[in-house]
């Protein structure tokens, strides 16, 4: 197998595992068994190890001496750290993206918001929410910044799933609409300030008791 195909397989494995971790199918502390994963994907250990490194870079897994690779745990300080990082980096990205946002992009972002409002479960809401944020920051054309934001979104989604997987509530995202309104009238400062405040909304609503995760908090944004 060529180096390029190994890399592509590693990306695919890491994405599948990340989705399982984010959705809670693989829980905090669970071991990621290299042999089992290699067998599942019909792969050698090389792309599996690279996939593990990608998960570690995203904060979704940790490597422990003599214990192998495990799904990372998370707590409220980490949730707050992710929210602060996302707020700062997405505001930076939006400032650079704003001059390049077309009516078509803003209309697509509005449709993503409407899809989120219509969502009946946390998975579809999170996908629509992530689509909104990606649409308004991608025109910044800063690949490293966008890659970091993507990793932080994965962490945010994990916290959200932990808090609201079994007790989802439909919601109307007024902040998204305020951001779009500011961008359409050319008020970038207000759009950036609203975005940062929106992402920092954190820790105000603990997970419902029935989830059994009293230390899990949701990031909305």
Brief description of this entry?
With 221 residues, the protein is mainly alpha-helical.
Draw up the topology in text.
Blueprint: H1 3-23, E1 31-32, H2 34-41, H3 45-57, E2 61-64, E3 68-71, H4 76-97, H5 103-117, H6 122-137, H7 143-164, H8 174-184, H9 188-200, E4 202-206, E5 217-219
Antiparallel strand pairs: 1-3, 2-3, 4-5
Helix pairs in contact: 1-3, 1-7, 2-3, 4-7, 4-9, 5-6, 5-8, 6-7, 8-9
Please characterize this protein's 3D structure.
The protein is mainly alpha-helical and 221 residues long. It folds into two domains: 63 residues, Winged helix-like DNA-binding domain superfamily/Winged helix DNA-binding domain (Arc Repressor Mutant, subunit A, Orthogonal Bundle); 125 residues, Up-down Bundle (Four Helix Bundle (Hemerythrin (Met), subunit A)), CATH 1.20.120.530. The chain is 64% helix and 8% strand. The strands form two sheets. A three-stranded antiparallel beta sheet has the order 1-3-2. Strand 2 and strand 3 form a beta hairpin. Helix 5 runs antiparallel to helix 6 and helix 5 packs antiparallel against helix 8. The C terminus is likely disordered.
Quick one: CATH class of the largest domain?
Mainly Alpha
Strand arrangement in the largest pleated sheet = 1-3-2
Q: Number of helical segments? A: 9
Rounded to an integer in angstroms, the radius of gyration calculated over CA atoms is 18 Å
Would you identify the regions where 5 or more consecutive residues have pLDDT less than 50? 203-219
Helix content: 55-70%
Helix and strand string, N-terminal first?
HEHHEEHHHHHHEE
Tell me the name of the CATH homologous superfamily of the largest domain. Answer: GntR ligand-binding domain-like
CATH architecture of the largest domain: Up-down Bundle
Distance between the termini: 41 Å
Compute the average pLDDT: 85
Structural class assignment: mainly alpha
- Secondary structure tally: strands: 5
């Amino acid at each position: 197998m060529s180096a390029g195909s190994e890399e592509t397989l590693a990306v695919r494995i890491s994405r599948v595992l990340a989705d399982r971790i984010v959705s809670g199918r693989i829980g905090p502390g669970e071991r990621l068994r290299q042999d089992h994963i290699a067998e599942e994907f019909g792969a050698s250990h090389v792309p599996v190890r690279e996939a593990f490194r990608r998960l570690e870079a995203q904060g979704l897994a940790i490597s422990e001496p003599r214990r192998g690779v495990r799904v990372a745990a998370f707590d409220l300080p980490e949730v707050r750290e992710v929210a602060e990082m996302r707020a700062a980096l997405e505001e930076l990205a939006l400032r650079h993206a704003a001059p390049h946002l077309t009516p078509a992009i803003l209309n697509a972002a509005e449709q993503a918001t409407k899809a989120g409002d219509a969502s009946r479960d946390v998975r579809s809401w999170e996908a629509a929410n992530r689509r909104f944020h990606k649409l308004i920051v991608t025109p910044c054309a800063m690949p490293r910044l966008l890659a970091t934001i993507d990793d932080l979104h994965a962490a945010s989604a994990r916290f959200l799933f932990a808090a609201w997987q079994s007790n989802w509530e439909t919601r109307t995202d007024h902040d998204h609409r305020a951001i779009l309104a500011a961008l359409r009238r050319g008020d970038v400062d207000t759009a950036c300030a609203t975005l940062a405040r929106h992402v920092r909304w954190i820790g105000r609503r603990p997970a419902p008791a029935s989830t059994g995760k009293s230390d899990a908090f949701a990031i909305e944004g």
